[in-house]
């Protein structure tokens, strides 16, 4: 192309059916272009049998695209430039896509190379246009990424809100259960002690209830803790005993905490206790003759009501 000589440029992509050709029916014609054969071709315009001879083309290009297409007769796709500049050189490819007699895809291509005498100004303008096109693609991809990230953040916020709602629901239910199942509380040495209502004696179930609320069946570790429990129990009017941690099932004659399996290091047995190593394998803190002390007792007894204490660290 010499802009001083050529007033127009037309790329004519035409397909004529031939009985010797393997293509039995044409589906589409495509014109594409590359500035450098080392780079992939980029589609400029296309037409297909479903488009009713309407040409699809890139809006940002300065050419006029026209054409007609038929599955079995002559078809063409024309790209025309008025007053072409040095921006139009490159390799143009005409691609015909169709099927053979058994429905297999058939593709035929024809390339043409157009050169131009480029002025420095036009070359710079061409490079600038290419840069702007690349920048637009980059900005488009950034927008897609930002939209995707924003949607993911929104989904995460909604999920978090749902989790918080569910958590608050269960917290409310647990608080309601705690209010229903426990009579009153005591604080001692950075631990809170919850005294249950009267329930059937069952150390496994009682321990499980304590674990549900983040605690464990009270473990009396020293005399200070036992004295605090005694004072706590004395505030009641009809409490004769509570189930506390301690089991003699695993090793007869040695008492272990159910939660940890560690030995019970502090005991304050009532005189004569423990007195039954076969059946009485749990520990209760009971009031007998106005004195609170430990006794061995049955772990499961139904119907027999007793209270228990859950110990919960702050």
Automatic annotation (TrEMBL):
InterPro entries: C-type_lectin-like, C-type_lectin-like/link_sf, CLec_Tetranectin-domain, CTDL_fold
SUPFAM superfamilies cross-referenced by the UniProt entry: C-type lectin-like
Organism of derivation: Lymnaea stagnalis (Great pond snail)
Principal place of residence: secreted
GO molecular function: carbohydrate binding; growth factor activity
Signal sequence residues: none
Subcellular location(s) of the protein: Secreted
Sequence ranges assigned to domain C-type lectin in this UniProt record: 188-293
Keywords: Lectin, Secreted, Signal
GO cellular component, one term: extracellular space
CDD domains: CLECT
The keyword Secreted belongs to this UniProt entry's keyword annotation: yes
Protein name: C-type lectin domain-containing protein
Pfam family, one: Lectin_C
